[in-house]
Design a protein that fits this description.
12 helices; binds calcium ion; 306 residues; binds beta-D-ribofuranose; Inosine-uridine Nucleoside N-ribohydrolase, Chain A; nine-stranded mixed β-sheet; alpha/beta; globular; single chain
């Protein structure tokens, strides 16, 4: 049995990734944590609780995490996911009692208590991850793998250099990459190959369950943003990272040396991926290929299963 901790910033593609994860068999989710990112952390925490409840999984503890990146200020931009993070799709309010433990503290505890075989997934900025690794650096050794959506081997999406999750908190990436944890990077170079097609939309529109109907409404918003901004088809970034974590091999990875730019104003948040590094210098398995059809099929069957 694989044990999973999910750290995220929901976010529409985070929501799709959560549905995909919650439908997986042979996975026990120890906890889900919200971080600052697509939306302020209070909004992300609220969404995360309601998304879990929508899937009938209010039993999974949900924790509120970092309000601000480690070093830089945070400026909320509602462009991609809307003011509420879910494209204006209101979900029923979860009525489970609130957890009071901070996400970073809870993560350290959950890892210490787990019987082993823990996969840590992050689909938002790495602020909570870095805080947890600083609170208890030994958790890195107890975790099988940290699988992260973020970065790129080529250009970014917020600036020519930087992908959003790294750009929000590049210092946190530096903490995680230098911690010695087994780190898998699922960046834009692969997630840009995985988009929702017209057939996928048609299939989602036919779904009658609550999760399928919420997905349909969220995706209408997300797809309209992509179309309006000229970004092509709506990309399923976070779904790819979740599936690589629970179905290792859905991405083809290469051991690389990854460094993150934190000093240059123009290059802040750039991931510099050296795929020619000597084995002993490699600090990251970088996704270089993806089975896009398998990711889309798995996500669709997950959403239909609720
Ligand atoms: C990443 O940024 C966010 O907007 C998405 O949720 C995804 O995690 C893609 O750059
Ligand atoms: Ca995200």
């Amino acid at each position: 049995m694989r044990h999973v901790i999910l750290d995220c910033d929901p976010g529409i593609d985070d929501a799709l990734a959560i549905f995909t994860l919650l439908a997986e068999r042979d996975v026990e989710i120890l906890g889900m944590c919200a971080t600052v990112g697509n939306v302020p952390v209070d909004t992300g925490y609220h969404n995360l609780r309601n998304l879990a409840a929508l899937c009938g999984r209010s039993d999974i503890p949900v924790f509120r995490g970092a309000q601000l990146p480690l070093v830089r200020p945070y400026a909320f931009d509602p462009l991609v996911h809307g003011e509420d993070g879910l494209g204006g799709v209101a979900l029923p309010e979860s009525d489970v009692p609130h957890e009071v433990e901070h996400a970073a503290v809870a993560t350290c505890r959950l890892v210490r208590e787990a019987p082993g075989n823990v996969t840590w997934i992050a689909t938002g900025p790495l602020t909570n991850v870095a805080l947890a690794l600083r609170l208890d650096p030994t958790i890195g050794e107890k975790i099988d793998r940290l699988v992260v959506m973020g970065g790129s081997t080529a250009r970014g999406n917020v600036t020519p250099a930087a992908e959003f999750n790294v750009w929000v908190d590049a210092e946190a990436w530096r903490v995680a990459l230098s911690s010695g944890i087994r780190f898998t990077m699922v960046g834009l170079n692969v997630t840009h190959q995985v988009a929702c097609t017209l057939e996928d939309y048609a299939e989602i529109k036919r779904m009658r369950g609550k999760v399928g109907q919420a997905t349909n409404r969220m995706l209408s918003y997300y797809e309209a943003v992509y179309r309006r901004e000229g970004w092509g088809e709506a990309k399923l970034h976070d779904v790819v990272a979740v599936l690589e974590a629970v179905q290792p091999g859905i991405c083809g990875t290469v051991p690389c040396r990854v460094d993150v730019e934190t000093a240059s104003p123009l290059g802040y948040g750039q991931t510099l991926v050296n795929d020619r590094a000597a084995r002993e210098e490699a600090n990251c398995d970088v996704a270089m290929a993806v089975d896009a059809g398998a990711v889309r099929r798995r996500m669709l069957s997950a959403i239909a299963s609720f």
